[in-house]
């Protein structure tokens, strides 16, 4: 994955070595020799990732990282801190300053490139969601969320117990699996936020577990942290290539583990918020805000494709058009607020009488289209009659004004198994049947004529 990287170090030799390693992997490299210059370049160039030395004069890497993460224009740029300091407290301090990762000098080439690829992959994903949403998620809480759930896979009971206690000291809930086939039941019972996987399993391959988690739709986007002996850096790099987000060496230090889990949970919360915001925006674009039914835009964009799919599978599909009888009179007599209540109740009753794969679309006003896949014309007529009765047999109770209001539907039905082949033709046939239902006295279901 190509990208533009900013290397920050006051030692020219270190800059030259890192630049050589990264350009050899086809990354474009920018450089800065101090904290102030790094902030200026980051603001101007917006690199994809910053490799930041800690020990620099005037402004150390911790302060630079904090400033990058506070500034809205640069807060989403991943930061990997690089230092000769090997004290766990320094690594934890860097992670708590907002760093996404931490490397210790002398930098291992495999670890460096694996960390870079992992950070760039996450940034690319988050940038895509921000682009879809079209705005920043403001006010994101960077603190550790309370009651986050961690799923730990570790075969050795003693090792699992130590790690579990360290995870729980950070305020997280830890669920332990000793075999990979215990993961699915735990997922079904608990809202897992992060996976913590041992690569030192004896009876199965930890890398295979990582690959399986990334292959499954329900776990594909969950943060995945692996741990192994420092001598096993090759397998750790492979785990990162398979989609792991972070790693930690054994023996696992409690403070570093807690800091790395907090970073991953923070990232997941940000991703979840972006995705939820995007999904809400998408839902607003295709649903009627009053009733929750799909809108005309959804119908025009999706129904023709659905028809093509069912036609290719040679399966019948039917359409019903339902219209609320004398709806204008309801609005004129009781007001538009009462009319809105009627529309909402009608959609609730229609949904109550349909299958989960059936679709309700509010075309406008008091007119609704009901799409019934894999349903022949005669069966659709029976469904429409059941829906008509569900409305006619019980009045709509209005809250304002307080009145029980009789409401009826007229419905026209057409199905592809009696000659209509495409959505437009079927809609016209159903509309003609609806017109006949109204002309013949309303509160009726009429089928299309051959």
Description:
The chain is an alpha/beta fold and about 450 residues long. It folds into three domains: about 1-135, Response regulator (Rossmann fold, 3-Layer(aba) Sandwich); about 140-280, Rossmann fold (3-Layer(aba) Sandwich); about 295-445, Alpha-Beta Plaits, CATH 3.30.70.270. Helix content is about 50%, strand content about 20%. It contains 15 helices and 17 strands. It has helices spanning about 10-25, 35-45, 60-70, 90-95, 110-135, 155-170, 185-190, 205-215, 235-240, 255-285, 295-310, 325-335, 335-350, 375-390, 425-440; strands spanning about 5-10, 30, 50-55, 80-85, 100-105, 150-155, 175, 195-200, 225-230, 245-250, 315-325, 360-365, 365-375, 395-400, 405, 410-415, 445. The strands form four sheets. Strands 2-1-3-4-5 form a five-stranded parallel beta sheet, sandwiched between helices. Strands 7-6-8-9-10 form a five-stranded parallel beta sheet, sandwiched between helices. Strand 8 (about 195-200), helix 8 and strand 9 form a beta-alpha-beta unit. Helix 5 (about 110-135) packs parallel to helix 10 (about 255-285) and helix 6 packs across helix 10. The radius of gyration is 30 Å and the shape is elongated. Mean pLDDT is about 85; it is low at about 135-145.
Write a short abstract of this structure:
By secondary structure, the chain is an alpha/beta fold.
